[in-house]
Amino acid sequence: MTYYPPQYDPWAPPPPPPPPPRRRRRGPAVVLGALGLVVLVALGFVAWDLGRPSRTGGTASPLERTWENQQTSNETLDVDAVADEVEPGLVDIYSTLGYSGQQAAGTGMVLTADGQVLTNNHVVAGATSIKVTDVDTGRTYRAEVAGYSRSADVAVLRLQNASDLDTITTGDSAEVSVGDPVVGLGNAGGDGGEPSVSPGKVTALNQSITATDESTGSSEQLTGLIQVDADIQSGDSGGALADGDGKVIGMNTAASTGYQLGRNGRPADVSGFAIPINDALRLARQIEAGTASDTVHIGPSAFIGVSVSDAGGSGALVQQVVSGGPADNAGLTAGDVITGLDGRAIGSATDLTAVMDTLHPGDHVTVTWLDQSGQQHSTSAALVEGPVG
After folding, report:
1. CATH topology of domain 300-386
2. b/e per residue, 121-136, with b = 16+ CB within 10 A?
3. Which of 4, 91, 123, 182 has its CA 20 to 30 A from that of 250?
4. Predicted confidence (pLDDT) per residue in 217-260, tens digit
5. Quick check: helix, strand or coil at residue 71?
6. What do you get for the CA distance between the two ends of the chain, in Å?
7. Where are the domains of the chain?
8. Whole-angstrom Cα distance, residue 15 to residue 45?
9. Which residues pair with 321 in a beta bridge?
10. Which residue stretches of the chain are H helix?
């Protein structure tokens, strides 16, 4: 699922830039948020293709780390040592988003030497093709999605023809405490190359946020998150939140933005949010085992071929229909309201998404809807393989 902040206008002039990243790159980063507006956004980086040049920039320039060691919990955080420990197990993820002409970028963490990669679901949601670049070697692999949990924002990728990859070292997120020093690492700005490095500390535990997918109208609440004051930015999604020993204790997922500056030009209130690694690994193991559930989808995503929004509690309002897709073939048009799918009532866009996550390409389902005159229709549709859920 790709999340965007509310009222984002890609044609509007960009707001003032965020605080300088921890490394030097060529090309500006897109700031997803308006000046003075603090919103929670997931940290996938999307390059808009609207007849203008891509904002992702060109080839990355030579990089070097630039930061100050921070005093946290009465001890010095050795950022260089943490980064050296974590970086070999990171990958940059680049997705082509189907039916929109967009490109997206994020980060992943290598779990196994043969190419199992942990990331956020929203990094690859909507993707029709995925490429992954090993940060350490620069080698690029094609990837497929082994499975995902939309509600937990976790996905596992499987790299093709990968071997002998370096992996991350994980810690125990149950042992994390407020005030612990941490370092966030990821593909900030989607530029690739050496990961961005953002030191900070844990400011709260067991936090909850709500994120909305504007393409479907559905929303998800993420719970149990680690909150940090590290300067995590767009593109860091799926990256590592490491402790002072270089062990990964969380997966970067979202941040509050607005970049209201305080003293010394630093953000007055920067908050990043990470999924505890224990929770992410539990779901990753379930996916690797091929065990589907109400919240975990295994394999390719089923596709019915509509974009929808809520219809005031009465169903999922069809905004667009993909030409030649299952919904189009069944006779649905924009303005119809889907009220049932596969024998289950649909009261919202989120309901439709939840039912679709339990289905697979090739499944035959009964679709029930109301047309714009209020007349009810019901017919069978054969689902096809579509973009990643």
Report:
1. Pdz3 Domain (2.30.42)
2. bbbbbbbeebbbbbbe
3. 4
4. 556 789 999 999 999 888 999 999 999 999 999 999 988 754 34
5. strand
6. 6
7. 40-288, 300-386
8. 16
9. 306
10. 79-86, 121-124, 277-288, 326-330, 349-356
